[in-house]
Write a structure and sequence with these properties.
The structure is a single chain. The chain is α/β, with parallel strands linked by helices and 227 residues long. The chain has 8 helices and 12 strands. The N and C termini lie far apart (47 Å). It has 2 domains: 119 residues, Response regulator (Rossmann fold); 95 residues, Arc Repressor Mutant, subunit A, CATH 1.10.10.10. It has a 5-stranded parallel beta sheet with strand order 2-1-3-4-5, sandwiched between helices. A 4-stranded antiparallel beta sheet has the order 6-7-8-9, with helices on one face. Bound molecules: calcium ion.
């Protein structure tokens, strides 16, 4: 397992490296302090997962992400300074798979990295699902609506898969947490909210008046059945 950290804050690189050394000694860490260098390392080192800071000295983390996505589908976890929803949404839009906000809890970050790796290995085991006019092929998370392809990130694909598999039934926050990160966290509902908003923007006619992905306050979300 190889993890590439693209981050200009030496202390954060050290903190992540140290946490990995203690809790996951078989993982190798490579790091870059500049975005351009980071993109190069994705190409030459072929990491299994990338942790990417959005605020880098040379080019922005968004540009790094864009360049990586031109040639690689390596899972990318973005680090943002505050829980700035706009940056998170933009990062996910540009192909990040997950995010963590600084300051982060080391254990949570490690769990998220591991979950990204697990998901990568587990893709494609389930057959395609159809609900109403939606069809989702879990291999590559390809979603189509009446034959039209809707692009999903891996995280969105996993959420959609849960919703479609349980259409009409509420999927709880902790069920989503298990599917996404392998474990439950306090604060999971805030993370979910961001992803659900993105999915609604892709699927709903009017995302502010959702008719497909519905919320059950305090419990979870469910996909409305056609009837
Ligand atoms: Ca930074």
């Amino acid at each position: 397992m190889k993890i590439l950290i693209i981050e200009d804050d030496e202390q954060i690189i050290e903190a992540i490296s140290l946490a990995l050394e203690i809790r996951w000694p078989e993982a190798a860490v490579v790091s870059a302090r500049l975005g351009e260098k980071g993109v190069q390392l994705v190409e030459t080192e072929k990491p299994d997962v990338v942790v990417l800071d959005l605020g880098l000295p040379d080019i922005s983390g968004f540009d790094v992400l864009k360049q990586i996505r031109l040639f690689s589908d390596v899972p990318v976890l973005i680090l943002t300074v505050r829980s700035e929803e706009a940056s998170i949404v933009k990062g996910l839009e540009w192909g990040a798979d997950d995010y963590a906000t600084k300051p982060f809890k080391q254990l949570e970050l490690l769990a998220r990295i591991k979950a990204l790796l697990r998901r990568r290995g587990a893709a494609g085991v389930e057959p395609p699902l159809t609900v109403d006019d939606l069809t989702l092929d879990p291999a590559g998370f390809r979603l189509t609506r009446s034959g039209q392809e809707i692009e999903l990130t891996r995280t969105e694909g996993i959420i959609m898969f849960r919703l479609m598999k349980n259409a009409g039934r509420v999927v709880s926050h902790s069920e989503f947490a298990e599917a996404l990160w392998g474990t439950d966290y306090p604060g999971i509902s805030d993370s979910l909210k961001v992803y659900i908003r993105r999915l609604r923007e892709k699927l709903e006619e009017d995302p502010s008046q959702p008719k497909r992905i519905l919320n059950k306050a305090g419990a979870g979300y469910f996909l409305a059945r056609p009837d």
